[in-house]
Design brief:
- With 282 residues, the chain is an alpha+beta fold.
- It contains eleven helices and 14 strands.
- It has three domains: 48 residues, Uridine Diphospho-n-acetylenolpyruvylglucosamine Reductase, domain 2; 116 residues, Uridine Diphospho-n-acetylenolpyruvylglucosamine Reductase, domain 3; 102 residues, Enolase-like, domain 1, CATH 3.30.390.
- The strands form four sheets. It has a five-stranded antiparallel sheet. Strands 11-12-13-14 form a four-stranded antiparallel sheet, sandwiched between helices.
- The longest helix is centred in the C-terminal third of the chain and has 17 residues.
- The N and C termini lie far apart (50 Å).
- The model has no long low-confidence stretch (mean pLDDT 93).
């Protein structure tokens, strides 16, 4: 049953301090609203007082430097898709933005919202994990920066203190690498929630793995970095036997479930196949 609009309050914050004061008072922030409106339409949006952040210029903008990139939390998927610097230096993030919903969702949905919605099936978090993103969090008491790795502590749980907002996403420059990989599998090619989503970066010295980063979504209660598979691959010759070992290690790191979209068995096998495709790709 659809929610009744009259049961909700919506405030529009004109400044960041005003938004932080409302959030500290228990108001729920809303940016693009692409996730919250789904709950509203289903009659499942529990928070009755919402504060819109869309007018806050402090949370907008993409900045590039030789050291990396900084994205305001209100950066939309369309902003990412159209940014030449991000496409050049962070192609996995650009690929994730293209895979997220349809054009209407991409125009309105935000990277910050994708993070704090804390869905393990979200499209951008695996890319952010392999780029070793950091998050800037702000509150009335000041700002702090934490690694994105470990930000999600469980299903829909995160290291976001009461009264805090995500303000920026900071991406260090990854530098040249041998392979970039992003793949989302779903029921259909477009506008589907992922069954499995994977991002990977690979650095090669000769025929040996110098460094590798692997992240997966939809295979557990949070998006994950596959640190055991990464450690197994490092400094070893990349061949069929090593790929098989890495697939076994990855299977031990994930905890997929059966749900309406897929089965745990399918997700585990697809995750292993995506890893092999990544490691074998030219």
């Amino acid at each position: 049953m659809r929610s009744a609009a009259a049961d909700y309050e919506l405030a529009s914050a004109r400044t960041l301090p005003e938004a932080l004061a409302l959030v500290s008072g228990g108001w729920r922030p809303i940016a693009g609203g692409t996730d919250l409106m789904v709950l509203f339409e289903a009659g499942k949006l529990e928070h009755r007082r919402l504060v819109s952040l869309r007018g806050l210029t402090e949370l907008r903008g993409i900045e590039m430097s030789p050291q990396g990139a900084s994205l305001g939390a209100l950066t939309t998927y369309t902003n990412v898709r159209r940014h030449d610097g991000l496409a050049r230096d962070y192609p996995l993030l650009a690929a994730a933005a293209r895979e997220t919903g349809g054009i209407a969702t991409q125009n309105r949905g935000t990277i910050g919202g994708n993070i704090v919605n804390a869905s393990p099936a979200a499209d951008t978090p695996p890319a952010l994990l392999v780029y070793e993103a950091a998050l800037e969090l702000v509150s009335a008491g000041g700002a702090r920066q934490i690694p994105y790795l470990g930000f999600h502590t469980g299903y829909k749980r995160m290291q976001l203190a009461p009264g805090e907002l995500l303000s920026r996403i900071i991406l260090p420059m990854p530098g040249p690498c041998a392979r970039h990989y992003y793949r989302k599998t779903g029921t259909r090619r477009a506008q589907a929630i992922s069954k499995v989503v994977m991002a990977g970066l690979l650095w090669i010295d000769g025929d040996r793995v110098r460094a590798v980063r692997i992240a997966l979504g939809s295979v557990g209660p949070t998006v994950i970095r596959c640190v055991a598979a990464e450690a197994l691959l490092r400094r070893r010759r990349l061949d069929a036997a090593l790929i098989a070992e890495a697939q076994a290690a990855l299977a031990g790191e994930i905890s997929p479930v059966d749900d309406l979209r897929s089965t745990a068995r399918y997700r585990r096998r697809v995750a292993q196949n995506l890893l092999a495709e990544f490691l074998r790709s030219p």
